[in-house]
Amino acid sequence: MLFALTPGCSSSGSDPCEVVCAKSAECQPDGPGEDICIDLCRSESARVSYRTAIERQAECYEEKGWSCADLAIGACDYSPED
């Protein structure tokens, strides 16, 4: 999951990489940083499976307003089997 350093477009029109990486930076302030995360995410989003997972993760973040603690235990985790 990108939250751990991982994430197209979500239904709200937001950039899914920006949504996921902003939350990642908020929840993991000692991580690599939002800009590095966004660059990596956009690079990896060329793969359809990755892009789909990040889009769903971003939608979850936006819809539910999960806390960092909720996300750490998998609140918005996505796998292709879901």
Explain what the structure shows.
Helices cover 60% and strands 0% of the residues. It has 82 residues and is mainly α. It has one domain.
List strands and helices in order, with pairings.
Blueprint: H1 2-5, H2 16-27, H3 34-44, H4 48-64, H5 68-72
Helix pairs in contact: 2-3, 2-4
Any key phrases for this structure?
single chain, 5 helices, mainly alpha, 82 residues
Give the percentage of residues in beta strands.
under 5%
CA(first)-CA(last) distance: 14 Å
The tally of helices reads 5
Q: Could you give the order of the helices and strands?
A: HHHHH
- Backbone shape: globular
**Structural class of the secondary elements?**
mainly alpha
Estimate the helix proportion, in percent.
Answer: 55-70%
What's the β-strand tally? 0
- Radius of gyration, taken over Cα atoms and rounded to an integer in Å: 11 Å
Average pLDDT: 83
Pick out the low-confidence regions. 1-12
Domains counted in the coordinates: how many?
A: 1
The major beta sheet can be summarized as: none
Quick gist of this model?
It contains five helices and no strands.
